[in-house]
Amino acid sequence: MPDDDDSTALPQTCVRCGNQALVRIVGRCSDCIGRLGLAQNDEYAAWRAEVKKEFGVQG
Ligand SMILES: [Zn+2]
Predict the structure, then answer these.
(1) Separation of 20 CA from ligand 1 center, angstroms?
(2) 27 φ, ψ (degrees, to nearest 5)
(3) Which site from 38, 44, 54, 58 is most exposed, i.e. has the minimal number of CB atoms within 10 Å?
(4) Tens-digit pLDDT profile for residues 9-57
(5) Cα torsion at 21, 23, 28, 34 (round to 10°)?
(6) 14 C-alpha vs ligand 1 centroid, how far in Å?
(7) CA–CA distance, 17 with 8 (Å, rounded to integer)
(8) Rounded to an integer, what distance in angstroms lies between the CA atom of residue 21 and that of residue 17?
(9) 28: CA distance to ligand 1 center in Å?
């Protein structure tokens, strides 16, 4: 299990934009995730790799 529990309802700081966000996936808030998804760049690929590592998602 990861040390930081993202399931808590406390706002945490997004590692990318620094905003407080209730919903984060591997440190990025939903706004950043949306932007990464639109950009489809190297940063998005790196985030996807972290998600796979964190959750064990294939594909
Ligand atoms: Zn963000």
Answers:
(1) 8
(2) 95, -15
(3) 58
(4) 678 999 999 999 999 999 999 999 999 999 999 999 999 999 999 998 6
(5) -100
(6) 5
(7) 20
(8) 10
(9) 5
